[in-house]
Design brief:
Blueprint: H1 14-31, E1 35-39, H2 45-64, H3 67-72, H4 76-79, H5 83-96, E2 100-103, E3 107-111, E4 117-128, E5 131-144, E6 147-157, E7 162-172, E8 175-185, E9 187-188, E10 191-192, H6 193-205, H7 209-223, E11 229-230, H8 232-244, E12 255-257, E13 263-273, E14 276-284, H9 291-308, E15 318-324, E16 330-336
Parallel strand pairs: 14-15
Antiparallel strand pairs: 1-3, 2-6, 3-6, 4-5, 5-11, 6-7, 7-8, 9-10, 12-13, 13-14, 15-16
Helix pairs in contact: 2-5, 6-7, 7-8
């Protein structure tokens, strides 16, 4: 039975208990118990200890920059294509060296059945009549084969910043092997996700909907250790963001910037660069091999973006324009906001 049905029933009135049981029964019948999550104290002590011990060992290897040992401990499909993990380890070694890591209560995800599931959804912890609570998490993983998986999130504190380092583990026999590694800062310039959330609300109150939207995105990103994980906090941010999502930003189709050339912008998103937040603008280009011409196009795009959305000057240190050709190759240019006339 899913842990959503098992915890804290003594805190509820009989009517709420009945409703919670009904919700769980409906969910189980609809899902066929294909995905089961055990959170924190729900799992056996030996399993929890094994997940935490493995994660601490992998953290030590990451802090030492020992990608070779991590690759040796990885599942075969990851070990054969390890360049992404190797780059992440290299990029974060200096961040984690000498850092103090604490382990959050892990999650055990059990995918049942005989074939991969196109969209495996794991409901972990306590859920209420309206969905997530402060004690719940949801993991949505595409094309997940049957098996037992561990999710271990570590908070890493260093003299310079705070980070999260998350491991996806897959059980093979008695061993837990590396199935994924996610490293990211949990603060930018000394500010955490809650700071960006407050700033987003301030921009909203000023009528600066674009700045609010981008800062809601950054807040949600900082508060979500994993891209396929959601919590009550991230769900609330998502709902707030949807209320201010600008209609003139690209979603399913590009938008055209005004100017002497028709630049087709495909996406906008905030990007953390050191202690600053820049705005990235991606647009279509037929060919980026002529870097001199592409640089001029990038500058033109940056100026057009800031001219169209002058409020961006209040929220970002700079703008990055990336010209992307059909092959996927791109060429980028950064202009600090103070240099954009």
């Amino acid at each position: 039975m899913m842990s959503a049905c098992r915890k804290r029933s003594t805190c509820l009135s009989p009517s709420w208990i009945a409703l919670s049981v009904l919700i769980c029964v409906v969910a189980l019948n609809a899902r066929g118990e294909a995905e089961i999550c055990l959170a924190g104290g729900d799992m056996e002590a030996a399993t929890r200890s094994a997940l935490e011990t493995t994660a601490r060992h992998f953290f030590d290897l990451t802090a030492k920059g020992d990608a070779a040992s991590l690759q040796h401990s990885a599942i075969p499909s990851l070990a054969s294509n390890f360049s992404g993990i190797e780059s992440a380890v290299k990029d974060n070694q200096a961040n984690f060296a000498g850092g103090q890591a604490s382990v959050r209560p892990p999650f055990l995800l059990q995918q049942q059945g005989a074939a991969p599931v196109e969209r495996a959804e794991f409901l972990c912890g306590v859920f209420g009549a309206r969905g997530q609570t402060a004690d719940s998490s949801v993991f949505v993983i595409p094309n997940l084969p049957p098996g037992n998986y561990g999710i271990v999130i570590m908070d890493v504190t260093t003299a310079q910043n705070a980070y999260t380092l998350s491991f996806v583990l897959e059980q093979h026999g008695n061993d837990w092997q590396l199935g994924g590694l996610y490293a990211k800062p949990s603060q930018v310039g000394g500010h955490d996700g809650n700071w960006f959330l407050q700033r987003a609300r301030e921009f909203k109150a000023k009528g600066q909907g674009h700045n609010a939207w981008f800062y809601f995105l950054e807040a949600r990103d900082l508060l979500a250790p994993l891209p396929f994980m959601s919590t009550l906090a991230t769900d609330k941010i998502y709902d707030e963001a949807q209320a201010v999502q600008p209609a003139d930003l690209p979603t399913e189709s590009p938008v055209t910037l005004p100017g002497p050339k028709a630049y087709k912008v495909t996406s906008f998103f905030p990007l953390v660069v050191g202690n600053e937040v820049d705005l990235v603008v991606k647009y279509r280009s037929a060919d980026v091999s002529n870097t001199a011409q592409t640089f001029q196009d990038n500058v033109a795009v940056i100026k057009a973006v800031v001219a169209k959305y002058p409020e961006l000057r209040d929220a970002f240190a700079g703008v990055v324009a990336r010209a992307v050709e059909p092959s996927g190759r791109d060429y980028g240019t950064l202009l600090p906001m103070k240099e954009i006339k």
